[in-house]
Amino acid sequence: MKVTALTFGELKKWITEELGMKPYGAQQLFTWIHLRRVTSFHQMTDISLSARNRLDQVSEITSLDTCDTITADDGTVKYSFKLDDDEVIESVLIPDPPRLTACISTQAGCRFGCTFCQTGRGGFRRDLATDEIIAQLYGLQNSTDDRISNVVFMGMGEPLDNFPALRDALSIISDDRGICIGARKITVSTVGIPGGIEKLMQLDGQYGLAVSLHSAVESTRRKLVPVSRILPLRELKRDLMDYVSRKGRRITLEYCLIAGINDSAEEADALAEFADDIECKINLLVYNPVEGVPYKRPNMETVNRFMHRLYPRCQAVTLRRSRGSDIAAACGQLGPAARGTSSN
Ligand code: SF4
Known about the structure:
Layout: H1 8-17, H2 24-34, H3 49-58, E1 65-71, E2 77-82, E3 88-96, E4 99-103, E5 107-109, H4 118-121, E6 124-127, H5 130-141, E7 150-153, H6 163-174, E8 186-190, H7 196-202, E9 208-212, H8 218-224, H9 233-247, E10 251-257, H10 265-275, E11 280-286, H11 300-310, E12 317-319
Parallel strand pairs: 4-7, 7-8, 8-9, 9-10, 10-11, 11-12
Antiparallel strand pairs: 1-2, 2-3, 3-4, 5-6
Helix pairs in contact: 1-2, 5-6, 10-11
Bound molecules: iron/sulfur cluster.
């Protein structure tokens, strides 16, 4: 049994029903794994020796070894982790005092093939299991003395395409018996896949939602985000409005400006109209070049013109600093060729 993957409720059920341990053992075990982040049952000194031996025989605690670490000029650190089957995934730690944000991957590769994204270009290899998602976060936390304050699921893969593992990881990460990062400090980023946002809104926590929009013109978006052919803008917007009203939380629209593709006045007007009746903020980002992709960064004059075109109708617009672009750890850069991180 991979105990790192068990939510508190699952852990309690397993140790009482399968191992005959007392229910309070679940709290001890959960705290050792998820708060103290030990990697051996034998370090769990308040659990009896016989119980520790039994746990050691029938289960394991997942930890991941880093196979590469690169630090950017701005302090962003990209980690590569090797999985048991030799897949390599990437995660990023982004210092922005007082915040320290961990950007986590949910899949090795991605099946959605967004045309600007390094991860998408490498194709899909497999979903990550819950314990692999959790072990990434603990690998990052163990590498620093500062406490990770925020988690964004914006690394490799489409989180809502691996929903069961994401759901359990969210439960474990936000559990106050463990690493305890509150739901409001966790953001799930998606390109918008059919049924995905609906599933996320069924969960209890008020998780942040960021949507990789990149164009509010259907034909442009289809070029950039091919899955939008089966979830057109009208349906995506309905899902977003439902999320806002169900969760009472403003969402984020991510918009990566690409020269000559989605940076025109018409595109700005379409974005303003799309965002008009959604409680949201718009994060503009300037495209980070990906090797082998013909897209280019717009110049700052175009970026400023686009931003000012939005202002009369959308007040909550920010131009996001791209972090870690010199080490291929910025948005859209994670993936096999760059050996940096991706994505949503
Ligand atoms: Fe996949 Fe996200 Fe990259 Fe699109 S942007 S290919 S959904 S990882």
